[in-house]
Design a protein that fits this description.
319 residues, ten-stranded mixed sheet, alpha+beta
């Protein structure tokens, strides 16, 4: 019986991310399932789905970058910043390809972005889209986001006033807001018309599981497609200890580093991430133990400067 693991699902259009979770719950017969990052209903692509104990890693993925491919239409403004909203305005498009390239060159590095009103972001305990549907406006503050790379693929193909680009960015980036902000800078407004998430951390669309195929798979076939809980935690360090120390650690003991083989240091122990991160992530380790001749994942630990030892944050191993 499947009790934990992560599935890389290729979300189709016209379904919410929560709908995908519902399909997974019914298919696997497990209630404790969640996804690692919402995709809008009309968006497609990578949606990692965590099962059972694996849902506990979701808070550790803040440093994962996500990659999207999208198309936008110039000269169109909607209330939702995408083609599925109510049209607010149409403008003529007179900008050149050179102007497009110049404007998009500014969308690089750490920038300020104002989340759209039609989003799931909460303000005073209420989601922004709930305010929007009630016709209310609230003060939405800008946030720092990070754009690692933005590549323009098609500009005005076949004379159409559309632009297709891929963007690799931090968690919390709204691609439709990039489209609207770029359109405003070009003086003609812009609206998202299609969106596909092609990667999220270690998960890529080429290996994603089509939903209808997933529905028809038996447990053994599904098990072969599962990622282990520790696999997405690539920014954490790795230590390996012996069975006795590993079992003690799982029972609540602190683990001295001298009782471990340090295989890998945390990625951001010495270097900075592009945005602020939790201090604990700079000293976070995936802890493994040699048990019955195999490396077994015990849990996630943070190095404690006071104790000079690894202290468990979450334990995954059970005997």
């Amino acid at each position: 019986m499947i009790t934990e693991g992560i599935l890389n699902i290729n979300k189709p259009q016209n379904m919410t991310s929560h709908d995908i979770v519902g399909v997974a719950r019914r298919t696997l017969g497990i209630k404790k399932i969640g996804h690692t990052g919402t995709l809008d209903p009309m968006a497609t692509g990578v949606l990692p789905v965590c099962i059972g104990k694996s849902t506990r890693i979701m808070e550790y993925l803040d440093m994962d970058l996500k990659t999207y491919r999208c198309t936008m239409e110039l000269g169109l403004l909607t209330d939702t910043q995408d083609i599925w909203g109510e049209v607010l305005e149409r403008r003529s498009v007179t900008c050149t390809e050179a102007q497009v390239r110049a404007v998009f060159a500014d969308f690089c590095g750490v920038i300020d972005q104002k989340p759209p009103m039609y989003s799931a972001l909460k303000v005073d305990g209420k989601r922004l889209y709930e305010y929007a549907r009630e016709g209310k406006t609230v003060d939405v503050k800008t946030r720092k986001i990070y754009i690692h790379n933005l590549e323009l693929e098609k500009i005005f193909p076949d004379g159409e006033k559309t632009i297709t680009f891929t963007v690799q960015c931090s968690k919390g980036t709204y691609i439709r807001t990039i489209c609207q902000d770029a359109g405003e800078k070009l003086g003609c407004c812009g609206t998202l018309t299609s969106l596909e998430r092609i990667s999220s951390g270690i998960f890529h669309v080429e290996e994603a599981l089509d939903l209808e195929v997933f529905r028809e798979m038996n447990p053994l076939e599904i098990e072969k497609r599962l990622y282990a809980s520790w696999q997405p935690l690539v920014h954490f360090g790795k230590v390996v200890t012996d069975e006795t120390s590993g079992v003690r650690f799982a029972a609540g003991w602190h683990l001295p580093l001298q009782e471990c083989q340090i295989v890998k240091a945390p990625t951001f122990a010495e270097q900075d991430f592009y945005l602020p991160i939790r201090a604990e992530f700079r000293k976070a380790y995936n802890v493994f133990a040699e048990i019955a001749g195999k490396e077994v994942f015990i849990g996630v630990a943070f190095y404690n400067e006071t104790y000079k030892k690894l202290v468990a944050d979450k334990i995954f191993y059970t005997r």
